[in-house]
Amino acid sequence: MLELTKKLSFLYPTYVLAIVSIGYICGELGHYLIGVTSKAIAEDLHFGDIACQLNNTEVYLSELPVLCSTANNSETCYSYTLNGTPYCEWNYNGLGLDYQILAGPSFIAVFTVVGVLMGFLADKFNRVKMLAVCTVIFGVAIILSGAVNEYWQLVLLRMIMAAGESACNPLATGILSDIFPEAKRALVMSVFNWGIYGGYGIAFPVGRYIPPLNAWGLGWRVTYYGAGVVALLLAFLTWFTLKEPARTAIGEHAQNGGADAKKITIWDVIVDPRVILLCFAASIRHCGGMCFAYNCDLYYQKYFPDYDLGWWLFAVTIVIGSIGVVVGGVVSDKIVAKMGIRSRCIVLAVSQIISTPGAFGSVYFTPTYAMISLGLSYFFAEMWFGILFAMVVEIVPLRVRSTTIGVFLFVMNNIGGNLPIAVEPVSKAIGYRESLYIFYAGCYGFSSILFLLTTFLMEGPKKDVTAPKKDLTGVDNAVFTNDETNLPTITALVSNNKRAVMESSRL
Q: Where's it found, cell-wise (predicted)?
């Protein structure tokens, strides 16, 4: 049995990556399910906006004499008929300020603050055990979210869920960076951080198609029960099958043996211009991603209620997003040896500017071309997260690595996670679609510019510091070393030379 374990030991790093990544996906599934199940929950708990909506999925908008959205009250709404049958309903639509608070600030506020604390503790204590405990916390919170009867209960549980999930990134990033070498680091970080998009990609079919089945009479609640149970299973595997890896210095600080790293504090890292600009760029890019995550399903239901895009959104986010994650990580890892950490920034800037037109098209076009545009955008857009955190762990010293990630996430999530709440007032002023142009596609484009500026602050390729080979042909005193100091006396020199000749002759 011991021999078999040794033979399979090469699979252990991959197993660790799989466990922490799937656990992260479960946490993000619980996080983003609210965006897909919001309408069903709002109808059950009575929160958010009430509007006139299409209640018949068997007709197309082009067949309707009047669009439901034109009605401003319930009497007008129910007066719209097609062949004598009402096709509209006056009900909660899952949108409004209550929803935006539930989806964003209530989660982000706790997620970011506790994330800093978790990053600090990760630099001091056993990261594997902490990760298992935190997975239990957000798993239980997800399960209880399916049992709520009041709006405030759901807000409170999302805050607890955020507290548990906030540990995933700083803890898992530290564990993975100590297990995998630089040659695979961006790819590994990309796979792990893809859990964010994997979570809300899975949320589309889970949130759309499982509640209507009304399994055991639970409706939307069963989706939360299922996600929470899987999270608890992952917590069990994390605690009993993973082990704490040895902490190692990497990136810039590994090159000088970590000598200077002992003098660097978290405050030195925070005021580093590279970290500041990188964090600002990441915050803007995160805003674009969160804006799409929180609003895409509601957007397509609002503008194209006669199209079922659940599986299309799942395919784009999971399949195409996965390909983009792998390609981005591989490209970044391949060229980093030639161009240094700067190469990762270049990949970020180029990928995000290419993804911007597709992001705009996914909101501008009708469903068919919108999905094509979204697929093209996703392929390049999803390269960013893993590469970003590969850069972060490479430019900060070991002793404050997890703390830095916690602070970085605190800033990034407070800006990028809370800024999408502005979609609500802006949409009231200029329109829902137009607000997504700004906070979704616009943020992609702006972040690419900021990533490009960050490139100029990063280090270039590593310099070869190995000594040049000497030409030993002919007579060259350079082949002799340490012959200028501690010169022996003449007597000693003669004695030593003779001894050396005798010993050489014996050989």
A: Membrane
